[in-house]
Design a protein that fits this description.
Elements: H1 3-22, H2 46-57, H3 61-74, H4 79-91, H5 95-108, H6 113-125, H7 129-142, H8 148-159, H9 163-176, H10 181-193, H11 197-213, H12 220-231, H13 235-248, H14 254-265, H15 269-282, H16 288-299, H17 303-320
Helix pairs in contact: 1-2, 1-4, 2-3, 3-4, 4-5, 4-6, 5-6, 6-7, 7-8, 8-9, 9-10, 10-11, 10-12, 11-12, 12-13, 13-14, 14-15, 14-16, 15-16, 16-17
Length: about 325
Amino acid sequence: MTRRAAAVALAALLLGAAAAAQDPAAAAAGAGSLDARDLDQVPLEDGERTRLAEALKAGAYDRAQAVLLDAYARSPRSPALLRLLGGVLFVRGEYLDSAIALKKAEALAPLDARSRFTLAMAYVVLHRGRWARPELETLAAAEPRSPLYPYWLARLEYDEEHYAAAVDGFRRALALDPGYAKAHDNLGLALDALGRYDEAIKSYSEALRLNRARAARSPWPALNLGLLLTRLDRLDEAEPLLRESAREDPLFARAPAQLGIVLEKRGRTAEAIASLLEAARLDPRYAEPHYVLARLYRRAGESEKADRALATFQDLKKDAGRYVPEAVPPR
């Protein structure tokens, strides 16, 4: 494999893997960690370059990290190497180490946009919004026509419970890209939090329309609309949406958990229990389904099952604190 071919292959593999890893990590798909040109400057020996390419192709990011750490021991002041290492660490879910590597790279040379965005996303996952904000503001100033950065700045406003500011931010993103489904969905969340339910329903519905039209396979728009309709006691409308959410991602535990609550409200206890048990199976760390199961079992006179379900709920809450199922904040 030639040096140039290896560089192109490495960039394609890493950027693709980073994009795939970002969505469950609360990061935005479509942004990677480095530019292909950077790889020409990475101080790797030929054997290392080949091993790194093979590791990335196989998805063996632990091996990729080992190769890069060996190279880093020899060349600790290579910004291109640190950017690449930061990208691999991000894909591996080692967000703090990823941020450290990228900040070390920045101390040696300015970060490219992809690397800066990866750094911002590492901060988001680490719940360090005040660190992510200046990175996103820098990106927004450099690329004023991109909706990605106002979207994420609005996400930070939402996370800080500044819902009116979040509404403004998501609308800025949508002014740049009216077809941005995640922005419509999150605009719905912010409007929902403000109690502006009719507007929230319109935003959720547009996100759902776009999701269906593009076969995007995201379970969130149907779930969010279903959750709001459940709270409004529009259960006939909520149930099919929650079933749709479950179909979009069969591994998404929130959909069957919420469906179980709707089925309970509709008096369909056996179906509710089955749906809640499925949610618990899909995500064994998700506490809430067990709490609802305890209530249903108690109501049915099955005290032993109710006690077990309640104990499981309490154990999971104690172990995980404020655990969020699927480890993602609002999209």
